[in-house]
L-type lectin-domain containing receptor kinase IV.1-like isoform X1 (Iris pallida), 255 residues
Amino acid sequence: MKEFVAEVLSIGQLRHRNIVQLLGYCRRRGELLLVYDFMPNGSLDKFLYDRTAPNLDWNQRFQIIKGVASGLLYLHEGWEQVVVHRDIKSSNILLDGEMNARLGDFGLAKLYDRRTDPQTTTHVVGTIGYIAPELGSTGKATTATDVFAYGGFLLEVACGRRPLEAEAPAERVMLVDWVLDNWKKGAVLATTDRLLGDDYPEAEMEMVLKLGLLCSHPIPEARPSMRLVMQFLNGDTALPELSLVQWSFSEIVSP
């Protein structure tokens, strides 16, 4: 409890336009509740998967993508401690009244001092489809594991599909594998969300899809930092050409 309260108090000091403001916490009947600013448009997943919600055009999606990247860069590099979110996914991205993205739900977040080694945990937390493969062996949540989850989030927003989908009762399909296969065939744009039609800049979409693959690389050292991700998204740095290596992500999902 003391550790939880200490981390809540620390996270409550975070101030960034793309992070939902934590107002406090409440313990009631054995439950621990975190209290945040109200976000009138709810979570992003509603707009991606609920067909009764308005469809997001590409400009809105791209601004959301950049907003989340900006918030993560602040968590990783812009505060006095390193904050690892550990649960980046569309349902944890909240939208304010102007459809600006705010990263929320810090219930699994971990903090550690710079120049120190993240602590090992015996419990791997997060959501299947966003969990980096090295977490199972090292047990250490790092900025690189957040980048991996952000890669899945990028593909989710661009493709309008969840990172892990069941196509048959005994078959589970990884979104990143599907995008990777299409990229190898020279047809990466075929993975874009059909609801977008052809109403998007192809070069920008291709960059986002390839960046999603790069962030989802199974080798942590091959993933870019969030600072470099922001440079790619802002057009300040060109995305490097991806090499045709035999990546396979399916093994990160336990049977």
Summary: Confidence is low (pLDDT under 50) at residues 250-255. Residues 2-239 form a domain with the Transferase(Phosphotransferase); domain 1 fold (CATH 1.10.510.10). Residues 6 and 12 are 10 Å apart (CA to CA).
